Design the sequence.
């Protein structure tokens, strides 16, 4: 049996995995999106279902004012003595920042409030539980002294599990494999056949991303680099290779003794553009001369074994019959007030108008989900009567300064494209009051907006929009594109609401 990569398509970067018995659990970064750190369950490494988020309460994740591509970086998930541990970094938080960990006995939650580690530095923290019962935290930080911009080192300290704080002497383990390499980060330690192995990514998270390995006889080192470093990279395959930017990996061993690796990579399309963000891939690992040897990261590969359980595919259409949003839906930064409801008008998602806008570092009235395919179609049915500067409809979001809107305004239905913070109105149509169907159909980097004022009578609105504005190549940062439902009064107080009776997402 073969499987298809990526195993998690769309913006699911920095994967970390652990196995408990016959079950696998995986988390990824979430940056400025809330809830934070989506968590998935699998029984065969190929078929995954989301079972929730690790950080799903405001007390766990204060993202207020966080810049685009700030927020939650590179979580690590581990299981020890009946407890799940997730450690990560909150970057550029205005209320809290730094490394912290949370715990749970059930990976679906609830998870604890954060245990902050103020004595730690840097980012991308990880955990290692040795077979003598000791726990160790390690992470990446600027090297001391720093020989050049981007020169990083990996630190290690013991973790006191009773006090949830770092203890004992600090050890500097490594500063990367390649001479002059930048951003040695994402470290993970493993013990295999009595030897301690350290995996580190370096070269940055774009095209030059790479994975290097080192090993030692004791957890505190000294560590010796693999003579074949980097052990994995696609930077020599060219920017037009179907999979680029491989790195930031985590190892797992199956119950049968096989080794596999989850990692991030990107699929460029429409040139060197990455609208889907950094995605989670899977590849086999074997050992030679005591070193890990990752297999080729390919779009299809031989699966780990027979499929033990296929989860039911989620429906393409969310009809908003549940009293709570499903796990696919996210908010931009931490919502401090319930601006959405699924119960005031059953069978509808109601958004409440607020002054906040997508162009600000705030929490706007937006519920959104990841774009997971290069070719897709989205449809929704909206009821909304705009007043003044109010607008509501469909938003395609990369960050505050880069997005596409298909929104109903007092001046009609409009398509706008925002790049670098500059708005352009690309198309406009007069529509009668009442219900309106909205649609987006993407084929690569061409995003065609459409609408209907009666069932099935779809009309294109303007020419296809250049979707490269939704790529990190254009916008910068570490995130992928989101698609969602949006309402803003553009700085003015309002009591207006917008009702959406369904949201359909179809891969094409």
Sequence:
């Amino acid at each position: 049996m073969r499987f298809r990569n990526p195993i998690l398509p769309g913006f699911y970067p920095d994967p970390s995995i652990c196995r408990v018995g016959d079950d696998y659990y995986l988390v990824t970064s979430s940056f400025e999106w809330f809830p934070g750190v989506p968590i998935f369950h699998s029984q065969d490494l190929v078929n995954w279902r989301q079972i929730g988020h690790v950080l799903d309460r405001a007390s766990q994740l204060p993202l207020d004012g966080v810049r685009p591509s700030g927020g939650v970086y590179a979580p690590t998930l581990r299981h020890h003595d009946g407890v799940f541990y997730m450690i990560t970094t909150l970057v550029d938080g205005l209320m809290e920042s730094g490394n912290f960990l949370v715990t749970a006995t059930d990976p679906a939650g609830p998870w604890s409030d954060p245990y902050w580690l103020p004595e730690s530095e840097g980012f991308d923290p990880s955990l290692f539980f040795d077979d003598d019962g000791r726990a160790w935290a390690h992470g990446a930080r600027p090297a001391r002294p720093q020989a050049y911009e981007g020169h990083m080192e990996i630190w290690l300290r013991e973790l006191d599990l009773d006090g949830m704080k770092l203890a004992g002497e600090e050890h500097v383990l490594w500063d990367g494999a390649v001479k002059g390499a930048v951003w040695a980060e994402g470290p993970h330690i493993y013990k295999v056949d009595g030897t301690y192995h350290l995996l580190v990514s370096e070269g940055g998270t774009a095209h030059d991303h790479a994975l290097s390995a080192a090993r030692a006889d004791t957890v505190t080192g000294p560590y010796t680099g693999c003579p074949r470093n980097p052990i994995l990279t696609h930077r020599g395959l060219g920017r037009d290779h179907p999979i680029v930017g491989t790195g930031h990996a985590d190892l797992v061993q199956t119950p049968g003794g096989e080794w596999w690796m989850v990692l991030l990579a990107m699929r460029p399309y429409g040139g060197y553009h990455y609208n889907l963000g950094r995605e989670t891939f899977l590849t086999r690992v074997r050992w030679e001369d005591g070193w890990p040897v990752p297999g080729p990261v390919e779009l299809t590969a031989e699966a780990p074994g027979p499929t033990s359980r296929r989860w039911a595919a989620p429906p393409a259409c969310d009809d908003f019959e549940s009293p709570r949003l499903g796990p696919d839906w996210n908010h931009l930064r931490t919502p401090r007030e319930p601006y959405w409801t699924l119960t005031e008008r059953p069978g509808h998602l109601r958004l409440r108008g607020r002054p906040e806008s997508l162009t600000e570092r705030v929490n706007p009235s937006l519920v959104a989900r990841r774009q997971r395919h290069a070719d897709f179609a989205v449809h929704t049915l909206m009821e909304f009567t705009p007043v003044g500067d109010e607008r509501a409809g469909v938003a395609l979001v990369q960050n505050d300064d880069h997005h596409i809107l298909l929104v109903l305004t007092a001046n009609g239905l409009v398509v706008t494209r925002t790049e670098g913070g500059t708005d352009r109105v690309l198309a406009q149509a007069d529509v009668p009051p009442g219900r309106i169907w909205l649609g987006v159909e993407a084929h690569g980097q061409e995003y065609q907006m459409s609408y209907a004022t009666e069932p099935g009578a779809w009309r294109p609105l303007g020419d296809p929009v250049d979707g490269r504005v939704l790529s990190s190549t254009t916008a910068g940062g570490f995130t992928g594109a989101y698609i969602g439902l949006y309402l803003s009064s553009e700085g003015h107080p309002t009591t207006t609401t917008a009702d959406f009776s369904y949201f359909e997402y179809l891969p094409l």
Q: What stands out?
A: The mean pLDDT is 96. The domain at 12-228 is CATH 2.115.10.20 (Tachylectin-2; Chain A). Residues 447 and 465 are 5 Å apart (CA to CA). Helices lie at 472-475.
